[in-house]
Amino acid sequence: MVVIDEHYVRGIAGSIGLVLSYGFSLWRIFERNRRDRFVEFALITTMLLIIMFAIGRLPNVPAWVIPALLPLLALFCFLSVFFLFQQGYQAFRDRKRNTSR
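RE: above sequence
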């Protein structure tokens, strides 16, 4: 009979619960803001960060997993900031157009 350490089970269950609870709430926000690219990329970035935290809590995960996900996280962060500035610029330009009439 295999004996499973309680610490490992608690870590795995906590990680799965964390990912599922945050994933469900972020998915609902994602579905409500379909064409808003800033919200989409920001939520994907947040989910990736949460998944990285959950992977870090799991026991016996190879050391290369988290550093391998960091470039993807950085890419999504930069894209989120880009779309934030793009929306701000478009809102500023539209406001100028509407006030000039």
